[in-house]
Amino acid sequence: YREGLQSQGLWLNTADSQITEMVAAAGFDWICIDLQHGLAELADLPRLLPIVEKCDACKIVRVLSDKPEEIRRVLDLGAHGVIVPMIDTLEQATAAAAACRYPPVGTRSCGPTRAMAYDPKYLAHANDAVMCFVMIETAEGFENVEQIAALPGIDGLFVGPVDLSFSLCGGVSGLGGAVFSDALDRVLAAGKQVDKPVGIFGLNPENAVQQLRRGFTFCSLATDTTLFSNALQQAQTVAAQSSSRCRD
Ligand code: 3PY
Ligand code: MG
């Protein structure tokens, strides 16, 4: 993203090694392990992150909250970057960015247990290499989006469309409406103004492609759980069609 390239990722809601292997081998630019709404816990990361690392995908983790101690631990375990949910204020965003950097720039305490195992020279460049993306998904965060985007240490914004639709439009029925569409334009403009990437969670692959066309820098194409449940439905549809043909 630092070269301004668009990228596609995949979102992991499960904490399963085999699914992570399959996703990593499929060749996505980045993979996000979700600690906020997914099944993974902090203790799963030493098992899952090396699988992603092996396939050269960028290791992103959505943290459970903006708590600095949690952000630091996720980075210590070797994540390249964090997506921090539910950021409302400049203070929250500043603290999240600070938690990602060692002093004097930030407040990160030094103990990169797993990160050093991936990269012995980690300490020399961690402050520059680590990525801190904050989620714009509340009305308050949205109102502050230009100032949040401009903060030093914030590498980019990430839109949570579902929460943002609840907060701005009263629910997911607003996702297709003008208020929501204008909101996305404003977030994109806020990123563009400071030349920082803006990502978004893709609701499905078609939606993800639309968002990339619209100008988002990075977008998740799907989640492991939605892919699996779509495949199940497809299998059931095929089975239902063929069993009705058998009866005929
Ligand atoms: C949202 O859409 O609110 C998200 O956080 C995506 O997971
Ligand atoms: Mg959300």
Kindly state the number of beta strands.
8
Largest sheet: 8 strands, parallel, barrel
SSE pattern, N- to C-terminal: EHEHEHEHHHEHHEHHEHEH
Give the strand order of the largest sheet, numbering strands 1, 2, ... along the chain: 1-2-3-4-5-6-7-8
The number of helices is 12
The share of residues in extended strands comes to: 15-25%
What overall geometry do the principal axes of the alpha carbons give?
A: globular
Mean pLDDT equals 95
Please identify the structural class as seen in this structure: alpha/beta
Distance between the termini: 55 Å
Helix coverage percent: 40-55%
Radius of gyration: 19 Å
Throw out a few tags for this protein.
globular; 248 residues; binds 3-hydroxypyruvic acid; eight-stranded parallel beta barrel; binds magnesium ion
Describe this structure in words.
With 248 residues, this protein is an alpha/beta fold. 48% of the residues lie in helices and 16% in strands. The chain contains twelve helices and eight strands. It has an eight-stranded parallel beta barrel, surrounded by seven helices. Strand 3, helix 3 and strand 4 form a beta-alpha-beta unit. Helix 1 packs parallel to helix 2 (45-54) and helix 3 runs parallel beside helix 4 (90-99). The longest helix has 24 residues, at 224-247.
